[in-house]
């Protein structure tokens, strides 16, 4: 891939691309009709392409895009607009949790391992009901 070219414009939007193509036409000293003739487009089509944002305008299609680039003697170059983010290297000292296990307190319920804090209201209600039932049982035993 050849990189020996002169950069004429940078475009980030369709509007920017169309403005750059219009500037290129004017730099070459061509009228819109001359571009139509040189590119093999129908008469008046370059004007419609340059007025793409109006009701009477047209947008570039794949065929007209190729023809315009050839008529202007330019090409399209894609470039990355920002450098890729650096990937951090693995450093175990930066981890908040131990990878070896046991770093978190766990509650065992049967065969399931539950982390603390799940369903706290339900657990608190069940504990209160169990305490009330135990207190009621003690009262009944004392009454007998």
TrEMBL record:
User: Which UniProt keyword terms apply here?
Assistant: Plasmid
Region feature Disordered, mapped onto this chain: 85-118
Q: What is this protein called?
A: Uncharacterized protein
- Source species: Xanthobacter dioxanivorans
